[in-house]
Amino acid sequence: MTVEVPDGYGDGELHGWLSNWCGLVEAIARSRAAEELLERDDLPASGGLFAPPMWMWQQCKGLGRKSRARDGGTLLTPVRVKWHVQALHAVDHQTSIPWEACMIDEFWSGASTVVLSPDVIPAAVPSRTPESTIEVEQMSRTEMVRALHGYVQDGHRARWEALEILQPMLERSLLTAHSYLSKDVSTVVGGYRALLDDIMMETIRDEMMFGDADAQAPSVVSKIMDTCLDEGRFDKVEPLHYLRITLRRSAQEAVRRAIGDPHNGSRIRAVAVQADTRNPEVVRDLYNEGAFSSSRPSDQVGLARVQAALTIVPVTARPFDPALTA
Question: Is 216 found in the same domain as 319?
Fold first, then answer.
């Protein structure tokens, strides 16, 4: 019996989701580098634009199920390549550029010779490691400027596409965080209650996705995307696991802020449940004694924080309507 496997999930293939995500990250990085080159305005009269491959694809150890193909084989997973140049580099002659890469406890290094050529055929499939010789199309300065503007536009489109991909992941993380904290708070207030209504959850999601218009600051998700551009971000973890963990942590922090729960509210409530008391002074003293005994004296709490953790109430964006309870 032959097992039909969708593209991107068979033995020896690039991991489908990661391949798409890494391509978007690469486009965003090249867009930023293109903007810098346009601002510097020092391109050669004739040359080329070297776009170093940001990723190479390997069968890496220690990645668990994500590296397991649906047909029983092994998927190729991305390894970030660190080049000694920016994500876009203007060249006007043949040059050798070193690179290195690592993933958990595996390391690679080498150098690629960049050669100018009038006709360049793009590679159909990303290479396992950067090629020893990479051809770059030779262009006039005007053509390079036009190409850089194209990179900028591609990067802007890639950023919006990346946001669309992350939105459902963020929504799942928010639902998980809300469910966990609602159950956690119920241990001290008695009876399960949803702490946030749908409107509040949507508001939190939108602020995390797009930021607060009044604050004029990057959104939480934008900051997470920016960290994906850091060269060393994925030396110890592959991108999908990093995104899941970071979104999960950020979602829980956002829900805690919305309900007024301290960052260590769950630990405070655990002390209250274990001691079977809701007296904030007793809980504070027990908590602080535990902080000292666990060599974490900096984790001590004051009475106000304990009271906040023990008196969480639902937060709703809808006005109370008595008719709904009639």
Answer: yes
Please check whether residue 1 lies inside any domain of the structure. Answer: no
Q: What is the DSSP string of 123-188?
A: -SS--SS--SEEEEE-EEHHHHHHHHHHHHHHHHHHHHHHHHHHHHHHHHHHHHHHHHHHHHHHHH
Per-residue pLDDT of the chain (326 residues; tens, 9 = 90+): 333 444 455 555 777 889 999 999 999 999 999 999 999 999 999 999 999 999 998 886 655 555 555 555 678 889 999 999 999 999 999 999 999 999 888 899 999 999 999 887 666 556 677 888 999 999 999 999 999 999 999 999 999 999 999 999 999 999 999 999 999 999 998 778 899 999 999 999 999 999 887 767 899 999 999 999 999 999 988 899 999 999 999 999 999 999 999 999 999 999 999 999 999 999 999 999 886 556 566 778 999 999 999 999 998 876 545 454 44
Q: Of 117, 133, 153, at which residue does a domain stop?
A: 153
Maximum CA pair distance of the chain? Answer: 80
Q: Residue 34 is part of which domain span?
A: 16-153
Q: Do residues 47 and 90 touch, judged by C-beta distance below 8 A?
A: yes
CA distance 174 to 252: 7
| Alpha carbons 21 and 4: distance in angstroms, whole number | 24
Total number of domains in the chain: 2
